[in-house]
Please model this.
Amino acid sequence: MIESTATHAIQRDRVIQTAHAVANRRLCRDHYCLTLRVPMFPPAQAGQFAHLSPERSAAQVDIESDEASHQEWARALNLPMLRRAFSIAGLRRDNAGIEVDVIYRVVGTATRWMESLRVGDPVSILGPMGNSFPISDHKPVAWLVAGGVGLPPMLWLAAALQETAKRVVAFCGAQTHDLLALTLDLAAHPNPSAMTATPSAKEFARCGTDVVLSTDDGSLGFRGYVGSAMAAYHQANPLRPDVLVVYTCGPEPMMHFVAEYCIARQIECYVCVERNMACGTGMCQSCVVPVRDTADPAGWSYRLCCTDGPIFEACNILWETPR
Model:
């Protein structure tokens, strides 16, 4: 069962528990999908994330263990000392428990540890964290714009939107074709372009979502950034702003472009922001996002990506911190 919601509520119910890897499959050159099974997981919605870290076995934990000893243990084994936040790419419930999908790109200590995980290996998981994508009933068309590692939350959102009557198009971009973390059916759809959307990506096709593919180097689909692919598609397939909502996640310059494009055309748009998070619960105050705030004398204030986000309305985000 795919969970969905029509609200934008912040999830306050979260648990920390031990999960076990049930799969860790390679999707493309640098991207993997890690599937974790947990005995329980609070209600969760598309856009929320999980906080992961290595799980210490009983033999590695003594009665006097504390945060300092955990960091020493992690450092000695070349493991991440702090949790890492990852958008949930999918969540399934059955009688045996819950499976959580996390898609990641191998770039550093934490993701190299994740790449090493095998079936049965334990992982400490904290979640669900953050708020969720709002799904309104009154707009019949939704566009999902994903660049690079911004793909995972869009996969879960596409599944949630399948339960609505919306027409959904996903715009998926990468630097080059072998960094596109999708299963493509190019035999049936050999010449993808920005002018038409096709069911060429199996992960989206199973949700009834067509895709527009783009690569920065032109090795697959539209040549250029995924935001430009969206703009070209919009020019070829114009829609009124009162029927369209846009969701985006990925590199910040790409999201900035999509946000400004939508604001200029009065299109409702939501951005899934990424920040490094030391705690994920709001205590460390490290993952700040500057936003417009009419209640503040300065006209702006900070919000926390982990608890006020990661989903923000595009018109509220300040892409540069005011001086």
User: Anything to note?
Assistant: The mean pLDDT is 88. The chain has two domains: 15-129, 141-272. The first strand starts at residue 15 and ends at 26.
